[in-house]
Structure formats: C-alpha cells, structure tokens
Amino acid sequence: MPARPDENPLMSALPLFVLSRCRVGVLALVGLLCAGAVQAQDGHAAEVERWRAQRVENLKKPDGWFSYAGSGLVTVGEHRVGGAADNDIVLPGGPDHLGVLLLDAAGGLRFRPAFDSAARIDGRPFDDAALASNAGGGQPTRIDIGDKWFYVVRTGDVFGWRYRDPDSPGLRHFLAQGIEVWPVDPAWRVEARWEAFDPPREVEQVSVIGTVTTETSPGRAHFEVGGRAFALQPVDGGNGQLFFIFADRTSGRESYGAGRFLYADAAVDGRVVLDFNKAYNPPCALSPHVVCPVALPENRLDLRVEAGEKKYAALVD
Fold first, then answer.
1. What does residue 50 show for φ and ψ, rounded to 5 degrees?
2. How many folded domains does the chain comprise?
3. Are residues 186 and 231 in the same domain?
4. pTM for this entry
5. I need a labelling partner for 124 at 20 to 30 A (CA). Which of 26, 137, 147, 260 fits?
6. Residue 140 CA from chain centroid, whole number
7. How far is CA 113 from the centre of its chain?
8. Sign (positive/negative) of CA torsion 50, 55, 61, 66?
9. What is the rounded distance in angstroms from the CA atom of residue 38 to the CA atom of residue 36?
C-alpha cells in the first residue's frame, strides 16, 4: 500500500517505541515553547506592574506633581505676594504678606520679603535677593515658607509663579482615587524600525498654553498594528532615551486630550521597543498648575491605543 501524503515512509519503518519517543519529543518541544511564551508574557506583565507601582510612588512624594497648589502669570513690574486678598499674587497659603516680586523688561527677577516675613532661601532669611527661573535648564530659586515654597518659572517668553504644598488638595485627591489604566497587554509592546536622522532635526514643540520651544529629534520609529503602518517621532529624552508624545483615537475621550508621554531606550540594531503599556499622563493632565508640551502633528495616530494610563479626573481649583 502506498504511503499516505502525510506519512513519512522512513518514519513508518521505525520501531513503534522509537515513533512513540519521537511523538513525545515533539509534544514536549511544543509544550516548552508554549510555556516559554507564557513565562515571557507573565514576566512582561510583572515588569509593567512594577513600573506602574513606582510611578504611583513617585506621584505620592511631597515634591511630586501633585504638590502644585497654586499658579499664575507674572508680568513686568512689581507684584505684592501673599495669602491675603489685597495682594497682586494671592497664594493659597502662607503669610498674608510674603513680600514683593519684581520682574524687569530684560527678564531679571528679584524678591524683597515683607518685614518679619517667614520667607527663607537655603534656610536663611534675606533682605533682597535676585531670583533664578528655570531658563537655560537651570533650577529656579526656591523661596521656602515653612514646608511650602514659592518660585518663578519661564516657558518660552512667558513667566509664571508656582506654589507648592506637600499636603496639597491635589495630592489628597489622587490618594483617594488613583489613576485608571488599561490592563497590561503584550500586543502593545511593539518593536519598531528605527529611521535615524542625519543630522538630527530641530522641531518646534508647542505647549498647552501655546508657547513654543525648539527641541532636537534624532529620528523616527516605524511600526505596524493590525497590518497598518504608523510612525512616531521622538525628541531627545536625555540619558540616551527617546521621548515620545503621542495622541490617538482615545485622546480626549478615554485618555488625555493633549496626548500621552512614552519613553523608550535608544535604538539597538535599528530597532526600538515601544511599550505602550507604559504610556502615561503628562503633568498638565494631573494638575491645572503645570504647563507641558503636546503631541507633534505627525504624532497624532489614526489608531486607538488601548494601553497605558487613562484620563485622570484632576481636581480643578
């Protein structure tokens, strides 16, 4: 009788115990491969959950994003600062009259504390001090008021003040409700082809208040989801990382409207791993007192990215 199309004549000539061992070996190999895939998925899920737990711990810190309790614009001129309603800059806490903030036309900042003020810089009282903002990537001068603090930041050509409180209403709100997330899904850990820009390109990064900064983009990540091609362009994230800001079909509905943040390691052998399970809300989604960048036009995906953090119901003052 001729062999069936699916029958190997050489195999049918082997003793029965050999055939049995071969079949068992194939099944064992398939089992090992399946077990390995399950272990890899479980390992990935555990790694993402650890990342998320650390994210929550960072948000709980006294100097985390939720410590922002007050903010506003600073224009050129003198501004009385304090908790009383008769100040130009009314703080949500602290003494009634903290002092006077001066901003000159050249962008210079000074602060003159009120008589017997609780204001301190580096733990010491002062009579009159020049203040630094965060311009040029530096740290702004922090005026401490007990366990709270006040300082000035610059975004583009716009100056603004910030007031931080380690026991802010925003932090208490977060501790009570947390941030909702999509379940970890290994399908959203995507391997992308890296297209390096030579030389790197400059891009205009717009913020939620319309200010513009110039950032460096080292390349573009190309990937597929459901057989469709997409691309995301990061900016230099520092420390050898790529920083992506993207919006998608969930933005403004299930996720934050201005987009979400995602970091990835630099390309290796022309490939970049985009783990959308680690996509998270920008600071301005968590607090009304923070300014942050929005997604570049080319990073608005015609795709529902059902992974990472969902929209946060922030406490609005």
1. -65, -45
2. 2
3. yes
4. 0.81
5. 137
6. 21
7. 36
8. negative
9. 5
